[in-house]
Amino acid sequence: MDGLLVGVDLCDEYTHINCPEEEKLWTIPTVICRNKNADEWYVGEEAYAHTLMGDGIIVDKLLNLALRDGTATLGGVRYGGKELLLLFLERILKLPAREYQKEELGQLVIAVKRLDPKLSRMLRELVMRLGIAKEQVQIISHSEGFIYYTLSQKKEIWNNTVGMFDLSEVGLRYYEMKVQRGMKKVTVVAEYEDLEEGIDLNVLKKPSGGHLADRILTSCAERMMAHKAYSAVFLTGKGFLNQDWAAGLMKYLCSRRKVYIEQGVFARGAACRAQEGAKDNASFTCICDGRLKTTVSMNVLHRGQETNVTVAAAGDCWYDRVSVIDVIPDHQNSVDFIVTSLDSRKKKLISIPLEGFPKRPDRTTRVQIQVVFLDERTMEVTLRDRGFGELFPASNVQIRQEVML
User: Fold this and answer.
1) Contact assessment for residue 324 and residue 303, using Cβ atoms and an 8 Å cutoff
2) What's the pTM?
């Protein structure tokens, strides 16, 4: 693929950048600083340095500021959070371009901790303002980044369950990934849990705090990992930059398991995702945060033959999945959907009555069906009366219903 491939892990505390098959990993604090005396901007450690020198005003938590449409005043000028995040992104994306002397961008994949439609739309809008085309950008979750990073390793690493602890300044999160075979297409499922056993990383600097943190995380690992066969466990996040405090945890994890300490997992996974390009044509189905866990379909009669039409498939990105289908009910007064779980033997029927639609002879009502998703488990269905030509003009009747999958 022509152009630079870039994976970015964007968080409020830090930003990681990686390019496929490259060991170099940039770790940049997600902060920006404006010079008090000139229209100059600095990011990351350089921003901290200018602030300490007294000639800069710094702003942190840029992602949160932009997402809540906040503002910050620097040098008497008020800046919107989105504008500051845009300036930050513009500067950090120059790092790999300069390093590899490749100005043209091929694909940019940004991984975020928790994916939602508002965040995805905002990031797409910002990078498009940088002159990056829509089809060159993908927004994925940390869970998906974890999947792509793990599958880029040797098969022996992901042959069984893979676990990962991410210990950062904002908390502790546990990820678990499994590869499910025996289907038409290999399915990879990743889930996570934000654990209450969060630890202030500052306590790790003292022996007593380190011992307490070690006991807490060891107990947590025993609870999360009991009675499971693991092929590998990863440790990532700022808290694991040094493991001297975690003797008990390491002893437990290393018992009959391979343990890897790796920083930048999500950025490296995003870089692997960038290699696939704009099309979601992976050789496996990815089930994780940001993607559907079930398939929604309809049985219809097309050209005299009964066929099953997929409205949305397991593994589709739910936050930008919109399906619009026109149907003509035949001897029925409802629209029926079939919801199929990953285990194809588990199916359920969801029926939405056409209440309030005009009474007409059979096969003289065209119904437009629009399906969007509010999250991985909630589908919103809108049914509109389209009438049937000049004989039966369309009415204003519309039914909207949320459906739990």
Assistant:
1) no
2) 0.91
